[in-house]
Amino acid sequence: KILCQKLPDDVAEFLSNTIEALPDNVKESLSTLSCFGASVSSSFVKTLERALGKTLLDGMDAAVAEGLLDKINDHYRFSHDRIQEAAYNLMNILDRCNYHFSYGMALAPLEDEEDDFIFTAVT
Asked: Can you give the pTM of this predicted structure?
């Protein structure tokens, strides 16, 4: 019953403000990760870093230290779905579309190497 209740808007605003206060590299890592769902493997992130030419793992490790992400074995996951939502909503809707497109295009040439990466990119 408790799990089915909607969190009040002030919690979402609190999470957004918390993420906005983080260094830019952490915000960028969280926003990027939010485009790929609730969790990703470290190997996927390393592939994404190479494909996009940017560093994400350092920011993700900082987010783990802040309690926004959990790192379990070789996977990073958002500590709560509202954190993922807040990170995703940092981007305006047009930027989100552009990011999804550019991430997919960056990963598309890798489809023969890692079939599960392209599946992650499109989900």
From this structure: 0.82
